[in-house]
Amino acid sequence: MKLDATVPGGPCWTELGTGDLEAAKRFYGGLFGWRTETDPRPEAGGYTMAYLGEDAAAALTPLYRTGQPVAWTVSFAVSDADVSARLAGEAGGTVLLGPMDVFDAGRFAVAADPGGAVFQLWQGRGFPGAGVFNSPGALGWAELLTRDAARAESFYTAVFGWTVRPSARYPRLGVGGEDFGGMLTMDDRFPPEVPPHWLPYFATDDVDNAASTAGSSGGTTLMAPMTMPDGPRIAVLRDPQGAVFGVYRA
């Protein structure tokens, strides 16, 4: 991801909803070197920030809703969460939660695109989003896996004004002239029960070592380390509770 700060329309945060918060702290702390701090306020519901040094990198949370899957969710920065939520609905998406305020940190909404991929809208106030990108352990790329690329492109350009660089294999998504992610069409390699989703990629110094470390900590390698044509070395992993994420060579 070429972005190195939060910009309107770009990915600004990612958080994990997990069924075992303490296990997630151990797994990702060992994998990425995160230091975690859980908000002690009862109304925060166990929301846990993950830091690289003093910079916020991601969050880990309990499962708040009945039926909520164990999964990573990517947030995109917006100037007005209410307006963006309305645009998402008008473009064929579904607003699942909010918009609502989060203390004095900001205002957010949870939405799904027409194919069902879930994401968040984040209107930062006291908290703009991640303080670090593209460094080992930090968010570095956001990939949309979809079964209808044309419909997804129409939706996201209407909501966020993204640019899409055409490619038969892997269109690139961008904002402000910089790519931040890509779009992968789900083919028959993906079982029908796997829904469209956003996949965050975290930077690492060594993809092979990250996959090995994840495996020795109870995780699973879903896509073995490989070097992409004209791209970085990547792998797709699953944590012990079932959340899927990617790693790439920074």
From TrEMBL:
The protein's matches in Pfam families, at most eight in alphabetical order, are given as:
Glyoxalase
Q: Which InterPro entries match?
A: Anthracycline_SecMetBiosynth (IPR052164), Glyas_Bleomycin-R_OHBP_Dase (IPR029068), Glyas_Fos-R_dOase_dom (IPR004360), VOC_core (IPR037523)
Q: Where does the source fall among the domains of life?
A: Bacteria
Which PROSITE patterns does the UniProt entry name for this protein?
Answer: VOC (PS51819)
> In what residue span(s) does the VOC domain sit?
10-124, 138-250
Q: What is this protein called?
A: VOC family protein
Organism placement in taxonomy:
Bacteria, Bacillati, Actinomycetota, Actinomycetes, Kitasatosporales
